[in-house]
Amino acid sequence: MSPTPSVRRLRLGLPRRVFSQALLMQAALAAGVAVPATRLFLAPPSDQPDDQAMRRALAIARTTAEIPQVAEDLQRTPPTVDGPVQRQAERIRKASGAEYVVVMDTEGVRWSHPDPDQVGGHVSTDPGPALAGHDVMQIDTGTLGRSARGKVPLRDSDGRIIGAVSVGIEYDSVRDRLIHAIPGLLAYAGGALAVGALAAWLISRRVQRQTRDLAFSDISALLAEREAMLHGIKEGVVALDRAGRVRLLNDEAQRLLGIGEESVGRTPDETLGEGRTADVLAGRVTGTDLLTVRGQRVLVANRMPTDDGGAVATLRDRTELEELGRELDSTRGLIDALRAQDHEHANRMHTLLGLLELEMYDDAVEFVGEVVGDHRVTAEQVTEKVHDPLLAALLVGKATVAAERGVALWVSDDTRLPDRLVDPQGLVTVVGNLVDNALDAVAGTRHARVEVQLRADGRTAVLGVCDTGPGVPPEQREVIFTEGWSTKKPPAHGKRGIGLSLVRRLAERQGGSVAVDEADGGGARVTVGLPEALAAPDLEPALTAGPHDTAEEESR
């Protein structure tokens, strides 16, 4: 049963594996080079031996003609089979391996010939050119068959032409030598083909290892899938070569890093500038899940070396997660504060109940007034100095958390901040991070105190947070702003070392600055200047009234 056309086509087609295709193509290439080369080697020898044979015959003829004794014997002896010319010519013929050496006179009569019967007869080919003084080389047919011939004039001592010398080399011997040379040439060609096939096999094996024995169609499909995957995943991928230059950058990496395709072929330092992000991508900072800040984004980076000396770095956006983590920390603090307040409230209620049971009504009234008044005074003090509702609420909440942690949070008497903030949320981030760091610094110390100062200098907002903690050594006052640097244990949701870095980036983005020095009486003082953080007075937002003013407006 004959195979179907489709099966027949499949059998005649190229193999699918890269190894087999590479071996087949390279073997065909080696054969394609060896066969024409052999043909080129064989073609010239078919002409070259003829030319060499004729030149050899001509050389023997010249050598014979230059022997003075030959010319003298030709002039003084008759053409006989045992004459001196015959004997001299036969000696030369046998010594040189020529087919014949014929010496003739000007009439074309032979004085010598291998066949004694031909001595004294006329030559069978035209001796005219040689007798006219010309050297002749030719392939011709004579009495001894086809031969390569050389003819030269024979001169006496005075230079006169007295005859000619004709030497022939058997043509069949030339062809035999050519035929005998063919096996050697074919052997060389076969050896070259074998070496080429071996080289092709070795190269194919290397290709097989590098391609993992996949078919070309599989490799093409993998490349297409890789492109779709790299540009489709929501994780940044940056590939670097062994020289540290970017060679691949997917869409998400471009978005997270804020760079474009022009970064391909450049180093991270050239693309991103000096900083932790460039250090992480370049491998100067090692580890897993490294935190770095790029713009307003908190990124988690991992770097994996590749076999070719390069590396692949992955980037994940942790901005929202870090914000949620900080909110979770704040929420936990508030929960702890509420739990403590609940306990304190229960104690106060027990005290109030005791006063009522003892019928000490005046003392009960005074006790309730003191308790309520403390909280009211704290809130009123903050809102009188800080008119922005978001900042005021933040400070009131931080004061409650600080109180439960045994820390006195004080808003400086010099604090005056109008409700003209351009970016209230950014300022909340800055103040919140600075207060949290200060609370952590003074936790567990005696007479722990944190003071916050917020004031306006034209359109510049100046923020200052002082604490009574151990302070920051001068050699570390710049290092504390490095991403990932921290002296505290990481929280449950992730790593530390982001807060102060974000503060500096937010300040620098607005053209401001952050400085750390020693506070009066010890501890640390962080000062932040934010130019253009306040709107001009004539551009003050419509909603500038405080809570009390709003209540009055509603009562009207």
From TrEMBL:
Transmembrane segments: 185-203
The protein's Enzyme Commission number: 2.7.13.3
Domain Histidine kinase, chain residue ranges per copy: 423-534
Region of interest (Disordered), ranges: 532-556
Leading EC class: transferase
Biased composition (Low complexity): 532-543
Coiled-coil parts of chain: none
Topology in membrane: Multi-pass membrane protein
Gene Ontology MF term list: kinase activity
Main location: membrane
Name the record gives this protein: histidine kinase
Species of provenance: Streptomyces galbus
